[in-house]
Amino acid sequence: MRFTQASTKYGIPKGTLYDNILGKSKRMMILEETALDPSEETAVLEFCCDISVSPYNRRTKKSLNAILNFVERLRRKHDPGFMFTGLSGFRWWWAFCKKHSIVSLYINDENENGADSS
Fold it and tell me: How many domains, in total, are found in the chain?
Protein backbone atom coordinates (compact mmCIF):
# COMPACT_ATOMS: atom_id res chain seq x y z
CA MET A 1 0.00 0.00 0.00
CA ARG A 2 1.35 3.43 -0.86
CA PHE A 3 1.66 6.17 1.77
CA THR A 4 -1.13 8.11 0.05
CA GLN A 5 -3.45 5.11 0.15
CA ALA A 6 -2.68 4.41 3.82
CA SER A 7 -3.18 8.08 4.64
CA THR A 8 -6.63 8.07 3.05
CA LYS A 9 -7.68 4.69 4.40
CA TYR A 10 -6.66 5.32 8.01
CA GLY A 11 -7.10 9.10 8.17
CA ILE A 12 -3.46 9.77 9.04
CA PRO A 13 -1.63 12.68 7.40
CA LYS A 14 0.89 11.44 4.84
CA GLY A 15 3.68 13.48 6.42
CA THR A 16 3.07 11.79 9.77
CA LEU A 17 3.40 8.38 8.13
CA TYR A 18 6.67 9.38 6.46
CA ASP A 19 8.03 10.81 9.70
CA ASN A 20 7.09 7.81 11.82
CA ILE A 21 8.29 5.15 9.39
CA LEU A 22 11.30 6.83 7.84
CA GLY A 23 12.40 9.12 10.65
CA LYS A 24 12.07 12.88 10.71
CA SER A 25 15.60 13.84 9.79
CA LYS A 26 18.30 12.71 7.40
CA ARG A 27 16.11 10.40 5.34
CA MET A 28 18.66 10.29 2.52
CA MET A 29 21.58 9.32 4.80
CA ILE A 30 20.72 5.63 4.36
CA LEU A 31 22.07 5.88 0.80
CA GLU A 32 25.48 6.85 2.15
CA GLU A 33 25.33 4.10 4.77
CA THR A 34 24.57 1.50 2.10
CA ALA A 35 27.49 2.92 0.08
CA LEU A 36 26.73 1.76 -3.44
CA ASP A 37 29.09 3.21 -6.03
CA PRO A 38 27.61 4.78 -9.20
CA SER A 39 28.02 1.61 -11.27
CA GLU A 40 26.25 -0.43 -8.57
CA GLU A 41 23.40 2.10 -8.45
CA THR A 42 23.06 1.79 -12.22
CA ALA A 43 23.01 -2.00 -11.86
CA VAL A 44 20.15 -1.70 -9.34
CA LEU A 45 18.25 0.60 -11.70
CA GLU A 46 18.73 -1.80 -14.60
CA PHE A 47 17.64 -4.70 -12.39
CA CYS A 48 14.45 -3.10 -11.15
CA CYS A 49 13.34 -0.72 -13.91
CA ASP A 50 13.18 -0.43 -17.69
CA ILE A 51 15.46 2.61 -17.71
CA SER A 52 15.92 2.56 -21.47
CA VAL A 53 12.13 2.72 -21.96
CA SER A 54 11.29 5.13 -19.15
CA PRO A 55 14.27 7.25 -18.06
CA TYR A 56 12.00 9.53 -15.96
CA ASN A 57 9.12 8.56 -13.66
CA ARG A 58 10.40 5.01 -13.61
CA ARG A 59 8.24 2.08 -12.57
CA THR A 60 9.70 -1.05 -11.07
CA LYS A 61 9.32 -4.49 -12.53
CA LYS A 62 10.58 -6.32 -9.42
CA SER A 63 9.27 -6.69 -5.88
CA LEU A 64 10.84 -4.84 -2.99
CA ASN A 65 12.08 -8.16 -1.61
CA ALA A 66 13.84 -9.03 -4.90
CA ILE A 67 15.40 -5.55 -5.10
CA LEU A 68 16.70 -5.66 -1.52
CA ASN A 69 18.15 -9.13 -2.08
CA PHE A 70 19.91 -7.84 -5.22
CA VAL A 71 21.36 -4.87 -3.30
CA GLU A 72 22.52 -7.13 -0.47
CA ARG A 73 24.34 -9.36 -2.98
CA LEU A 74 26.05 -6.29 -4.49
CA ARG A 75 27.14 -4.98 -1.09
CA ARG A 76 28.40 -8.35 0.11
CA LYS A 77 31.13 -8.17 -2.53
CA HIS A 78 32.66 -5.38 -0.40
CA ASP A 79 31.20 -6.24 3.00
CA PRO A 80 30.40 -9.98 3.41
CA GLY A 81 28.25 -9.36 6.49
CA PHE A 82 26.01 -6.70 4.96
CA MET A 83 22.26 -7.10 5.26
CA PHE A 84 19.26 -4.87 5.68
CA THR A 85 17.67 -5.18 9.12
CA GLY A 86 14.35 -3.93 10.41
CA LEU A 87 13.11 -0.97 8.40
CA SER A 88 16.54 -0.18 6.90
CA GLY A 89 15.69 -1.86 3.58
CA PHE A 90 12.47 0.10 3.23
CA ARG A 91 14.23 3.32 4.24
CA TRP A 92 16.96 2.67 1.68
CA TRP A 93 14.34 1.96 -1.04
CA TRP A 94 12.41 5.15 -0.23
CA ALA A 95 15.59 7.28 -0.51
CA PHE A 96 16.71 5.44 -3.68
CA CYS A 97 13.29 6.11 -5.26
CA LYS A 98 13.53 9.81 -4.41
CA LYS A 99 17.04 10.06 -5.83
CA HIS A 100 16.23 8.22 -9.07
CA SER A 101 12.62 9.32 -9.74
CA ILE A 102 11.09 5.88 -9.25
CA VAL A 103 7.34 6.33 -8.87
CA SER A 104 5.97 2.88 -8.15
CA LEU A 105 6.83 -0.52 -6.78
CA TYR A 106 5.79 -3.88 -8.17
CA ILE A 107 4.13 -5.63 -5.23
CA ASN A 108 3.57 -9.29 -6.14
CA ASP A 109 6.67 -11.45 -5.78
CA GLU A 110 4.99 -14.89 -5.92
CA ASN A 111 6.91 -15.92 -9.05
CA GLU A 112 10.31 -14.57 -7.99
CA ASN A 113 11.42 -17.45 -5.81
CA GLY A 114 15.07 -17.57 -6.79
CA ALA A 115 14.58 -16.54 -10.43
CA ASP A 116 16.67 -13.42 -9.85
CA SER A 117 19.63 -14.97 -8.10
CA SER A 118 22.25 -13.53 -10.45
Answer: 1
